[in-house]
Write a structure and sequence with these properties.
- The protein is mainly α.
- The longest helix has 30 residues.
- The chain is globular, with a radius of gyration of 17 Å.
- The protein has nine helices and no strands.
């Protein structure tokens, strides 16, 4: 499979897409932990932290079909708009944590951040066939899955490290950059 990955990455645009997928997976894998740590630190309540993660997840899942349809209708450039809106909403959540907003404000910011999550999986599945070509499309999807697995390990580790060295809010803020990178690269 390594030979196939090399062949895929040799195609024009493949490294850029792989970078965007890597950054997206890194962020997406770490959101739950980052939100729990930041909201718990701000409020002192694991219940509110769990509620914020639930609000984020509900916003993300309930609007996933609409975001996917939007990408289908308008193209993958919509991902850049969603990534920017998502980054702003996550920044708002971090500001709310630092400013010690009441739980309702934090839950609302988390829900909006989740509602704006760019549809990484749908976008990647739409782009890999064009980038990899018909002969390497399966290798492109396999590479994307491998990047997702790596992100599942590295994302939470990154959040935990930044939270331990700086603060939970800094860890949540660190997730803005990979998310913005997805929008910029795609």
């Amino acid at each position: 499979m390594l030979v196939s990955y090399r062949a895929v990455l040799a195609r024009p645009g493949a490294r850029r897409l792989a970078l965007a997928c890597s950054m997206g997976w890194l962020s997406f894998a770490a959101y739950g932990l980052a939100v729990v740590l930041a909201v718990r630190e701000a409020t002192g309540s694991f219940a509110t932290a769990g509620g914020a993660v639930a609000a984020f997840s509900a916003g993300s899942s309930l609007l996933a079909p609409a975001r996917g349809r939007l990408v289908d209708r308008r193209g993958v450039r919509v991902v850049a708009v969603l990534a920017a809106a998502h980054a702003l909403a996550m920044a708002l959540l971090v500001v709310g944590c630092v400013a010690r907003w009441p739980p309702g404000g934090l839950l609302g910011a988390a829900a909006v951040a989740g509602a704006c999550v760019p549809p990484l999986i749908a976008t990647a599945r739409a782009l890999w066939p064009a980038v990899a070509g018909g002969d390497l499309v399966r290798a492109g999807h396999a590479l994307n899955a491998a990047l997702g697995d790596a992100g599942q390990v590295a994302g939470p580790a990154l959040v935990g490290g930044v939270a331990a060295l700086a603060s939970s809010a800094a860890a949540a803020l660190a997730l803005l950059f990979p998310g913005v990178a997805v929008g910029a690269v795609v």
